[in-house]
Amino acid sequence: MQEQPKNFGFGEDETMLRDSARKFFSDHCSADKIHRQVASNPNIHRNIECLWDKGLWQQITDLGWTAACVPESAGGIGMPLVAAVALAEEAGRAAFPSPLIATFNTTFVLRECASATADSLLADIATGTPMTLAITNKAGSWEPEDTDVSVTAGKLNGSAWFVQDAGKAEGLLVSARAAAGIGLYYVNSNAAGVTIKADGIIDLTRDQAHINLSHVDAIEVAAPGTGAAAIRHALPAIQAIVAADMVGAGEWLLQTTVEYAKVRVQFDRPLGFFQAVKHPLVNVMIEIDKAKSLAYNAACAIDSDPQRLDFANTEKLAHMAKACASEMAVFSSSRAVQFHGGIGFTWECYVHLFFKRQMHNQALYGDARYHRTKLADLLIGKAA
Amino acid sequence: MADADRMDTPEQAEFRAYCRQWLSANHPGQPPVRIPLGALELSDPKAMAWLQAWQKSAYAAGLVGCDYSTAVGGGGHTNCQTIANQEMQSARTPFLPNIIGLGMAAPTLYIHAQEEVKRALLPGLLSGAEIWCQGFSEPGAGSDLANQQTFAEKRGDSWVINGHKVWTSLAHFADWMILLCRTDKTDKYNGLSYFVVPIQPAVGKGVTVRPLIKLTGETGFNEVIFDDLVIEDKYRLDAVGAGWKVAMTTLAHERGAGLLVTPAAGGMIQENSKSANTSSPAALINLAKSSSRNGKTAADDPLIRDEMVKIAIRQEAFRQNQRRTLVPALTDHPMRIPLQNKLIGTEFNQDLAAITYDIQGPASSLYLNDENAAGGGEWQLAYMNSFGVTIAAGANEVQRNILGERVLGLPKSK
Predict the structure, then answer these.
(1) pLDDT digits (tens, 9 = 90+) for B124-172
(2) Is B5 an interface residue toward A (CB < 8 Å)?
(3) 20 to 30 A from B126, CA-CA: which of A219, A377, B212, B408?
(4) Whole-angstrom Cα distance, residue B155 to residue B233?
(5) Choices 2.40.110.10, 2.80.10.50, 2.170.130.10, 3.40.640.10: CATH for B132-254
């Protein structure tokens, strides 16, 4: 096992980045403002649209967030994964509507591709081009080998599903089956033959789509047949990033519910006086802390093993982080709604923004049961 | 951990080298008798005597009480007990038997006792020559610790003590007790005072020690009855009525949140022991691989696998919580994780042990007194014993109140 820094790799730069992100979100993304931005129309049958603030995207690009984890050789800042994890946590705490998480996830797949094309795409990300992964099939498989897209004579045909923030992304990284095996291909969202069909989703702070590809030019990003390996090698980082988003959202749900439990009076007492409320809130805090420690640990393990000398270990720690965070996400959001009582069940209460983001995230890149099943094979060995 | 990764002061580095050298030549080796997993389980006088001899030699070498002043029998070092503890752990020494004395009585005496009393009692405590026990809990004062009924009455220059203490670990070996009791019946918190009282010399003369049998069938702790026990006023710590404040010093150290680091050793693996390591997920997995349930290997059952994986995740999370709590920038509230540790640790052990009943199927019925019991029946025992620690030292329900009130800032439940 690789020697790891005691501070999970949170040096001065990473901590400063985290603190500036926290300030940025508190200045620009209050829950009230986000609610007005994405939830002003409660009619769920309205036209699906991407409600986000492109001006803020430009600002965070100027702050270097998208460049943070792009290698210096590709024009980025070259920070470790923990920097993206720190930003994802703050983004989750603000329920930030943006393609930031999708772009980070794409960044970590591109970092595995080792090609001039991948480097030029990373350079685009560094200067603020939002991108997303189109690597999931209709059956919702998280296995890199599974795709409903194929390549014939240099053209992509088929469909990709559950594509995150597809309506905001300008570029798609598509996995497809070719003669040499699974390849990775870059597709401009506006290219001929690309149809982006927005999904109607519960999460108001994001968009999602399924994408049909019909005779789309295939620009190969990784060496032929190495796409699945590139995705597999990036999955632990992706799982840590999504886990961190849930940790941040969980903390918002906890603190908001705690504040409500201090002021809401029933039976002549603030709600938080009652142990039926106090103890579960403590349990939520405990689950958040576990998920947070495990997310940092997974990120640090990945950063500490760039040569993948013990890849099974980083996979294991990322499974733990995502499994723990996914359960925490469900728990923290359910308790927040429940303890807000009647008002928590309404559209006007901000809790539902975070509740829905948590329920979305817990499923992405595998829910808790999926990751525990993977862990069982790693820790116990395959069942007979 | 590599030494290069440590951030020892020059004094610590020199002390570490000394500890390492001493331990390499003076490890006490394998005990001649069965040693239980922890000091609170000690019942065999031979085991106690052997462990006392080990503590005495470690103390004489300067590995116990390193940070206490030399005037009271300490080593006069700064922040060196942590170093000694790390080195004793690495050397896999036996544990130190005077655990209540080292962890709770010593820091409380050091901070609150008269100089004369410190000089008289701390050397024997640190060397393990005199064993200590704790007289806090009573039949009517468990989680509600301030509800003390044991009463100390001032008569002339002395105090006369009457009352009933329970769950008193090690009282059957104890020479001394730290005692919380009432001196004023009109004020719940400000009516408490704190004493140190002799036990062994007073047995039959004002003190009765009776073993309590745990639900496991084992003894381990006792009840202690005071019947007109007379003690000198110098054995009072701090002012009359300041007992609650002194007790908080004791409890802070018990929770690992005190000023002084508790001398601690351990890590020894006893040879020829049938007993299982009942707090290890790896041992749990091994048990599942060698157990059958419904006629099939338990480790192949998907529901059992999921439960074991949940336990492994909790263990890693606990470990990473400890790592994170040392990085101030990564914790929003300094006590947020430390105050979770007792709760999380004890419930982890309980839930781990509970799964072993599912893993073993009908063989989970076999106990210590059956030769076919897996791990000598220690898994079954571990589950039953786990309630001791989820209840003791502030039941976990009280721990949740403390976390909710001190960390989250919720209104007090009392």
Answers:
(1) 999 999 999 999 999 999 888 999 999 999 999 999 999 999 999 999 9
(2) yes
(3) B212
(4) 10
(5) 2.40.110.10
In sequence order, the 6+-apart residues with CB closer than 8 A to the CB of A230 are: A109, A112, A113, A184, A222
How far is the C-alpha of B279 from the C-alpha of B345, rounded, in Å?
Answer: 10
Binary contact (B329, A294; C-beta < 8 A): no
Instruction: List phi, psi (to 5°) of A8.
Output: 60, 10
For an interface test with B, which of A4, A8, A12, A292 has the most B Cβ atoms less than 10 Å from its Cβ? A292
pLDDT of residue A1: 52
Q: Does A379 touch chain B (CB under 8 A)?
A: yes
> Is residue B222 less than 8 Å (CB to CB) from chain A?
no
Position A83 confidence tier, pLDDT thresholds 50, 70, 90: very high
Q: Tell me the average pLDDT across B77-97.
A: 94
The ipTM estimated for the assembled molecules is 0.96
Specify whether the CB–CB gap between B409 and A262 falls below 8 A: yes
The closest CB to that of B411, out of A272, A292, A296, belongs to A272
Any CB–CB contact under 8 A between B321 and chain A? yes
Q: CATH fold of B3-127, please?
A: Butyryl-Coa Dehydrogenase, subunit A; domain 1 (1.10.540)
Question: Class of the B281-407 domain?
Answer: mainly alpha
Catalytic site residues of B? Answer: 254
For residues A236 and A298, give the distance between their C-alpha atoms in angstroms, rounded to a whole number: 8
* pLDDT tens digit sequence for A11-70: 999 999 999 999 999 999 999 999 999 999 999 898 998 899 999 999 999 999 999 999
Q: Tell me how far apart the alpha carbons of residues A369 and A110 are, in angstroms, rounded to a whole number.
A: 28
Put simply, the answer to whether B400 touches A278 (Cβ < 8 Å) is yes
**In chain A, what percentage of residues exceed pLDDT 90?**
97
Are B344 and A286 an interchain contact pair (Cβ–Cβ within 8 Å)? yes
